[in-house]
Amino acid sequence: TKILLVNERSEADPAGRAFQKIRVVFSEFENDLRQWRIKRGKALALKEKRCMNHPPFGYRMQEKQLVVNEEEAEAVKGIFSQYCTGVPVKHIARKYRKAPSNIRYILRNRFYVDLDLNGQHKVLIDSEKLQKSQELLEISRRYSEVNLNN
After folding, report:
1. Which of 20, 81, 104, 119 to pair with 75, CA 20 to 30 A apart?
2. Rounded CA separation 3/37 (Å)
3. How far apart, in whole angstroms, are the C-alpha atoms of residue 58 and residue 74?
4. What is the 3-class SS of 3-65, one letter each residue?
5. Max CA separation in the chain (angstroms)
6. With 60 as the cut, is the pLDDT of residue 118 above it?
7. Cβ contacts of residue 6 below 8 Å, gap of 6+?
8. Regarding beta strands 59-62 and 65-68, do their DSSP bridges make them parallel or antiparallel, or are they unpaired?
């Protein structure tokens, strides 16, 4: 395999080839180091019960604390209740003006029920609703696969 770097000319002599290999090694090292730092940061945030990314829909950051956004929290509860009673994702998405993929993401998100993911947030739904939504999403996924294959 030959690697050519942008704005660099290929060297035909042994020194040029060696220098090119050294650049590749350092590029891989930099990628590995970046991945290691990200994993370390995530582990530390989990240990300290901090939110790593943007808070999930239904929550907001206030003075470095995760607090419930009451309006969005009501929407999250409504999304789970409606889906668990048989309302299709597309109808829920239309009602809340969100993409169906966003609704599915909310329905799969364990953050709404699992204190181990942050430990300092108020759970918005009970674990039974999350479990039921997971089961219904899986049934829907299987049904879609069968219809796509036919």
Report:
1. 119
2. 27
3. 8
4. CCCCCCCCCCCHHHHHHHHHHHHHHHHHHHHHHHHHHHHHHHHHHCCCCCCCCCCCEEEECCE
5. 71
6. no
7. none
8. antiparallel
- CB atoms closer than 10 angstroms to residue 46: 14
Q: Tell me what pLDDT residue 18 has.
A: 85
In the chain the first and final C-alpha atoms are separated, in Å, by 42
* 9/3 Cα distance (integer angstroms): 11
User: Could you give the angle at the alpha carbon of 117 between the alpha carbons of 114 and 120, nearest 5°?
Assistant: 85
pLDDT digits (tens, 9 = 90+) for 17-61: 888 888 889 999 999 999 999 899 878 877 776 666 778 888 888
Tokens coding 12:
């035909």
Decide: helix, strand or coil at residue 66.
Answer: strand
Nearest of 59, 105, 118, 60 to residue 79 by alpha carbon: 105
Q: Which residues contact 41 (CB under 8 A, 6 or more apart)?
A: 52
Count of H helices and E strands in the chain?
A: 5, 2
Q: How far apart are CA 110 and CA 104, in angstroms?
A: 12
Which amino acid appears at position 52 of this protein? Answer: M
